[in-house]
Specification:
The structure is a homodimer of 212-residue chains. Chain A has 212 residues and is of the alpha+beta class. Chain A has 8 helices and 10 strands. The interface between A and B is medium-sized, with 34 and 36 residues. The first copy, chain A, binds a DNA duplex (30 and 30 nucleotides) through α8. Chains A, B: It comes from Chitinophaga tropicalis.
DNA sequence: CGCCCTGTGTGATCTGGGTCACTGTACTTC
DNA sequence: GAAGTACAGTGACCCAGATCACACAGGGCG
């Protein structure tokens, strides 16, 4: 599948000319499940549009802790690759990992400015991407600040359900603990509590969210 | 003082035409010390440029908790007013408070897009503002996530010193506790510890940061 | 001067959640 | 089917930080 076809499929609201320009200059990159896309401490040289698969975006702490922030799904752009990219900068401090085989279009940064000026739909897309990531980040800030772990866990599970599009979540307790920067035992206990409250059922290797 | 004069003083890198356009459409707003500028739950209708004074920007939790995020100083723009503004949106969930008598230029949102297209210096300014606030927010996230309170307090004090431009910080322990979403007693104890480490001297109503 | 009010110091206690040390249970591989 | 290897459950313990309950100091003001 070529760049234009991907763009048609996941970015249908882009003008034709915009799609052509992107296609002419971008490179299509395949990422296999488990692979890391952005490494902490690495420069950006391109903006990324996700067209296939599912990526998880993490914030990395200094001691190698990883904290899950959000998913990138087809049709999404990595706001960070736009933002941090805009000028040379020491370290990105974020990390993206593909959890499925994925495809991203890499748009060289130099193109950004002219696309912004030439195409209204690109301008709005970029601004909207900024806006929504910014807001997401704000959400994260006050979850971490103001909410206890049990509440954060519930929100996390809801997120997963939405992003994965299924009430069966293929997650181990250990993974959840990593994503929330907590520990397995604590997550196990909290999950058990939620099970008792009939909000979910625990199985081996997956969790079933009950509706309601 | 009129808008052009303010712009000349604090935004000298703007093109002349840009300054004129802004001056022609913005309104100059005076805010007195202690006044709140943005209320949680309120829509934005303009982007703000700070030209005088000092504003503190808070994130508000659901139960009325306030968490200090950063200062807005002359020459700064409120990234949030750009971001959230870009489309009607339920609630801002952030709050700005003037700690000195301040002046801001309010630029109507409709102007944004044409300014972006017409003026390179405006485009870079906006992108750079996004970038730096985004990064600040990321810093905040991992401070809160990965650092203990004593370390966060040190960072906070450094911030204050930089933003206020003086090693005498006119802050009560209670204020600091509010800003860090902690409690007075804990802050008092930690400050005492820092005093014992000769990093600062505690006085009534102000804290003196020792160099080094 | 005594009164009050704001800011500060300090101990006692409580609790969420992290850590340690296990046990138990499925599933895989040979 | 035995052994090894993820995953999951559970108790005991610890600690940062919150909360409570004070006591006290300085500064204004009648």
């Amino acid at each position: 599948m070529n760049a234009i076809a991907y763009l048609d499929q996941h970015f249908p609201h882009f003008e034709q000319g915009l799609k052509e320009q992107i296609a002419a200059h971008c490179t299509v990159r395949q990422i296999s499940a488990g692979e890391r896309l952005i490494q902490t401490g690495q420069y950006f040289r391109s903006t990324m549009l996700v067209t296939e698969g599912r990526l998880k975006l993490y914030r990395e702490g200094e001691e190698g802790d990883e904290f899950f922030m959000y998913y990138l799904l087809p049709g999404d752009a990595c706001a960070l690759s736009m933002v941090c990219a805009s000028r040379p900068h020491p370290a990105s401090e974020i990390m993206a990992k593909a959890i499925e085989d994925s495809v991203v279009l890499m748009i060289p940064l130099q193109l950004m400015e002219s696309l912004m000026q030439e195409f209204k739909s690109w301008y709005s897309f970029v601004v909207e991407t900024y806006r929504s990531r910014f807001e997401e980040l704000l959400q994260i800030v006050d979850q971490v600040l103001f909410k206890a772990l049990d509440e954060r866990l519930v929100i996390y599970l809801e997120h997963q359900q939405k992003a994965l599009g299924s009430p069966q979540l293929q997650l181990t307790h250990q993974e959840i603990a990593n994503d929330l920067n907590s520990s397995r035992e604590v997550i196990s206990r909290l999950l058990k509590k939620l099970e008792q409250q009939k909000k979910l059922v625990l199985h081996r290797n997956y969790i079933e969210i009950l509706p309601g």
